[in-house]
User: Fold this.
Amino acid sequence: MGSAKTRLLLSLICILFMPLAVAQQISVNQQIWSADVIRPSGQPVIPLFDGWFLNADGTRTLCYSFFNLNTEQSLTIPLGEKNYLSDDRFSAQLPTHFDPLPPRYRHKFCVFTVTVPANFSVNETIVWHLSSANENLSVPGHIKAPFVLDEPSSAGRGEIAPSIKFTKNSEGVRGRKGSTRETPIVGRVGEAVELSAWIEHPDEEVWVGWAKHAGPGTVGFDEIEYTMAPNGEPARVQATFSEPGRYLIRLQSINDTAAFEFYCCHSNAYINVDIN
Assistant:
């Protein structure tokens, strides 16, 4: 009986102090890592390292992702002292825009990659530094064996990443390294621009998600994510841009968002857009 009263008292205390908890930013050094640290706004973006995979030519590719601890607030973190890699020998399409926490699949998986040469040592690291909400955070990428990923397919799970192509008759690309449409699509401020890509997959349905990866202004999508039948009509989205400049839009596809949690098998594609 005493235990039941104690639990009831603790529940009442939590309810009474909930508004204060929602408004208060919690320093990373003081956080207990559970769902309780997620807030509507005011929290930092956590840089993550998903793992790495071997390429056919002997090089390795490192996968980085992020976890925005805010359910409503997106953040913009420009490249520079608050958003950079520790080793400038390697190029990467670092994101500068960070969407709020996805409610279904918890964080953004492998949003960019870094490919390292075959002689990259298991003791070397490439660190992604990301600062937001007064927190200076970083995560090391490496090629240690426990972090190896299935790519672009998993024999154990019987899954394969979707193939994405920018024109109907071009060759598709599977996997997290993805492909980039270098020739930009051109549009105007405030006018909807249609973005599209053809997706092929053996399943009857795939998930498609669109996001701003980088660029000067805000981007509105008529649909941020949806499911569709592959192997036919292209995946489409109407995007509206608030300011002129060069944008990079990230497209991700996987057979089902539940498969994200098994770290296989999704594909990335990136589309350049010039807004006048």
Remarks:
- Confidence is low (pLDDT under 50) at residues 1-23.
- The two ends are 69 Å apart (CA to CA).
